[in-house]
Records
---
Amino acid sequence: MTQAKICIMIAIVAYLGVVLFIGYLYSKKNKNTDDFYLGGRKLGPIVTAMSAEASDMSSWLLMGLPGVAYLTGIADAGWTAIGLALGTYVNFLIVAKRLRRYSKVANNSITLPQFFKNRYHDDSNTLLIISAIIIVVFFIPYTASGFAACGKLFASLFGVNYMTAMVISAVIIVGYTTLGGFLAASTTDLIQSIVMSIALIIVLVFGVNVAGGIDAVAANAKALPGYLTMFGSYDATTGSANSYGFITIVSTLAWGLGYFGMPHILLRFMAIEDESKLKVSRRIASVWVVISMTVAVLIGIIGYSMSKVGAISALTGADSETIIVRIADLMSQHGVLAALMAGVILAGILASTMSTADSQLLAASSAVSSDMLGEKLQKSDKGGMIAARVTLLVIAIFAVILAKDPNSSVFAIVSFAWAGFGAAFGPVMLFSLFWKRTNRFGALAGMISGGLMIFVWKYLVRPMGGAWNVYELLPAFIVACVMIVVVSLLTPAPDKSITDEFEEAAKKK
């Protein structure tokens, strides 16, 4: 192994050691499932903000977004980033405080399925079971994609067997999450967001320098038709610009709608220690998201200039997603300090994946042990903790099995799961918080229709192309909203006990 590889290994091992140590520290603070799955509602504003964003961004921030910008320019990546930034801000602004308060009023709900059940006094448990099933269906493959990304990173860096690298990565993620639960996952997510930020800054500065300066980067980008406009995109196969029309812009912006239904993000709102501190969290999260995504897009543009001057090889197709890995590899060849910095960059990619996988594991395991099985497994606090940890391990094993194929798609799964959660849970969450007339029949209709429409639109409608080529989240979100309103109005109004709780949660404090 070369000196550069050794330095990279040292940086990554040090990072992994820190997250495992955090899991060990928090293992002693989990006394019951409330602590394990929601941290006893003790999160501070900074941890709330940064853990929410780190668990949200995944490796998409350090691989997907720069890769899109590298290939097609700023339009596709830029409109996606704008949609996500708006979604982040609005989610913190209108959902966070109301959900924190309402989840407490609704029989101290500690999971999203529990909140829906308690919000509508659904003694049949239909909402609880359906929402738990949706979480498991989308989160197990989502988690598998995270394991696969970690395995590919280690396998490509050190030439080890993919399966071995993937399993080791999964063991580490499962290790600190099983030990420390929600608090460990949230605290490590804070650290991971810092590592991701440092990685982005290092790559940006190094890349501009290697590419010949900002003027050279701008000149190379301007030479490509449609590369630097928000209303067109560069097509490398034809060497010309494609139009980026209104429908495409709206479709891309629709990514922001997904935030209203993301279980691993919404849980952060439920877990903050004081709802009055959510304003601080909103500001921190919004600023970080805007800056980090802007830098990620710029790295894609800079990466093109680096390939133009021959510093790195030209990338095509899915290989464009490895642009930061290529830059880190180039940096590692410039001495020990540079190699250690390259290790930090690669640890950042690892961090971005781990920060999402740990939250997904917790959400999926809570859906099984706390929501589907409930009292059957939780006869005591100790029994509940054992059930929670065993369930998490079992779900992780299924995810590892799904991730055994090194050619499995990572970002297609992320896009589809994001749409699934956004359409199945987003409209139900918004109507649950802000429309008193919503009843359990409307909520159930919205949840099922939104989830089903994702499949219908993606596999039957969108392939028709043209005006139908819209990201499936948008039409599915609209259908779910319509179904909630229509079914709620056609069925009996909610009981007074339900509306009284709604009004209590709506009171300003």
Note: The mean pLDDT is 83.
---
Amino acid sequence: MKKTILLLFVLLAISARAGDRAQYYRDLPFPLPEPEAPAIPDKTVSIKDFGGVGDGIALNTDAFRKAIDALAKAGGGHLVVPAGIWLTGPLVLKDRTDLHLERGALILFSPDKALFFKKDGKGMVPAITASKRKDVSITGEGIIDGNGEWWRAVKRGKVSDVEWAAYRRMGGTVTEDGKLWYPFDLDHYANVAPAPQAQEALRTHLVRFTDCERVRVAGVTLQNSPKFHLVPQRCSQVIFEGITVRCPWNAQNGDGIDIMQSTDVLVAGCTVDVGDDGICMKGGAGAEGVKHGPCRRILIRDNTVFHAHGGFVIGSEFSGGMVDIAVLDNTFSGTDTGLRFKSGPGRGGRTENIVIAGIRMSDIQDEAVVFETGYVNVSVGTEGDRAATQEYLPEFSGIRISDVVCRDARIGLAARGTRAMIHDISLKDCVFFCSEKDCDVADPAMFLLENVRFHTYDTQNE
């Protein structure tokens, strides 16, 4: 009884915090609707009620399945995961269901890759997924860990001798040139493909929602994914608030939050520290991207990104387009680039009404703001193929950037591409301190600069 009352208090507190969500929609540069939160019934069950054991040894896949099925049969509710280490295979969420992790709870996904095969044996399912569902959420103060070190290849040049030795102790396969380690022929887990690169291509996401309506992830920590961490794909009414997303800085394809062709999305109060892009917008490639339409009506506000290839990123694939996106009051500290716009032939689309303001950046390894239209996607262990097509060219336009303060970027503003693909971009009231040079822009007519100051070590006191 006491535990039930305590849980109700926790859920009420979460609901109260949800009432503060309106603060993010004040003083917007253009109107954006606030996403509708999932409607979850008050019913609660514990994973323990279905035979779950949080000792880090027992495999709880069946217990999670039974609990989720029971909630679905009852019309939905909250599945509570108490403190403990809950080893499991993939989980599938259903309508009107909340996966709630109490403080001290750690859902750890098994390093046995065979558990993640699709039913037809072709490809892998994400660790947590929901497809064509309504009213789904993941909440609480616990941790969801994808056990990514058992999945990801590792570049020798990105790790210390101590780290490299730790990977070698797992077994695995090192390429002949000694530059790459694959988790293939591991000491304790069988391969699921005939060769290292084929197994590498099977890496899966940690949490993915596909074609869902009213989705919320709040409070939890998502970490150490085999690939991307949090992916809403073709979803509507999406709320990500107060979550932490983290993985090693050198994790291959370790994206944090990837919003894919979704509408009415809020990403607010989150902390991201990952191995690839931090908060990234994707819109599909080629005809398939056009078919599913743009990312539309997105608000990204009051987030902090530490290590990432880019703090806020559009691309590389966005053939469906990007429309009505506001990126406000975010901090990037230690990212490779700050604002990153990347694409290439066959992957590009058009951006419209993108407003970025109130951005604070520090310790940016490369460019504070960068546009690239010849981007080539390179999978680990390959050289990458440049698209031969001249269809679906990127067109970055209608982007307004203002009130940016950046200390210590190598280059302030860079653009690689033609004016046909980069144009009508404005920067206003910005300050950049650059360690190497202020701009690397082939055609200054791509940009309209108003009260933008670039400083270097030679001019910092001017």
Note: Residues 9-16 have pLDDT under 50 and may be disordered.
---
Amino acid sequence: MNPNPRQLAIQILYQCTKTGLPVDRIMDIIVQEAGLSEPKDRQLVMALVYGVLRSQRYLDAVIQKFSRHPLKKMKNLTLQALRVGVLQICFMDKVPESAAVNETVKALRALRQPKWLTGFVNGLLRSLVREKNILTSLEKSLPDAVSLNHPDWMYDRWVKRYGKEQAKTICRINNLQPSLSLCLNLTLCDRDAFISQLTKAGFQAREGMTPESVRISDYRGTISQISGYDKGHFMVQDEGAQLISLMLCPLPAGTYLDACAGLGGKTIHLAAMLPQKSTLIAVEPNTARFTLLQENISRMCVSERILPVHSTLATFARKTDNLFQAILVDAPCSGLGVIRRHPDIRWNRSPEDLKRYRKQQLALLSDTAPMLAPGGILVYATCSIEPEENEEVVTTFLKNHPDFSLDTPQDIPKSARHFIDENGYLKMLPDENHDGFFACRITKTVQNVK
């Protein structure tokens, strides 16, 4: 018996709220354990889960309008089922309203919820179907942060920094489904030929900002179905992330370090650009991410250029004798620049997290500083748009390390130079073509030899 996609969506959202773990990780586990094999069912699960996360505050306002029971007192599972049901009724035009109600209630029954509770959900959803016309007046009465589906603290800080209209724009962008951005391995394929091949296959593909980037509009299939995936011709990577790797250029022959490799997106992009007789060491402490890093390196055919190391940066720094020509510190951060791709982030962050990440980021830079050769380049980057994790971290680091100074990026494409400010910082707010990023290029002073 094929699992009910709505049941799986409810379970995923339940676990996401309960654990605070990334929703994509929870989704992979639950979908795999359920044996969900039909592509259309997988797509429905994703549409329900991501739809709820992108519309959560509005959905809750609708639920509260039709319920005498306060949301704060509802069981997590009940609330998630209601969100899934309301999402279908309000936003998924291709789903008949009767199916939205019946299948959601059926999913809740399959999760062994008591009859009174499934009756409550059934009654609320049917009331919404009957009185859907009152939503127009409800929408007009909602505060901005609620209608834009962001936490108050997050929206308020963006209004304070950017003004109301820019803050609203950021929130609206965060609620969109992102287009697909690829980073090509130009050692294995040509961009013009790759785009031509995609176009002939019916894709809407075009060049992006960087020499390696390709944008694909309105793609709903799996990534592995795109020609060239198994040959290592491309990986999925936002154009903003690709610009961060270019901050290190030009790249003379030497030894390089990716201090926070993660799944290897920037690692692989950097490795593909390295000149001959160069080595890139990629450090990653998390076991699951390290396994995926190795798999991605192998698929992208750059194994000869990268030495992956399973270690914390602090441990690696104590053990290595290397001085590196250049180092990339793509630091762990709040991720508030990539909410569009990871909509659960907005609900799993608090203002206190910014201080916690800042402390961690400064520690990483301090561990990295002694490993950089005199005259070498350090690029510090985050996928955050918050000053606490960006400019303030850099300012503090430079104050504590007088032998380092800001440097101006040299090889940023013309189409992206407007993202570089007067200090040499790369600062990108989320828009339709890219996520939000910060990066800067720092040089270590060459000591005078007497």
Note: The mean pLDDT is 94.
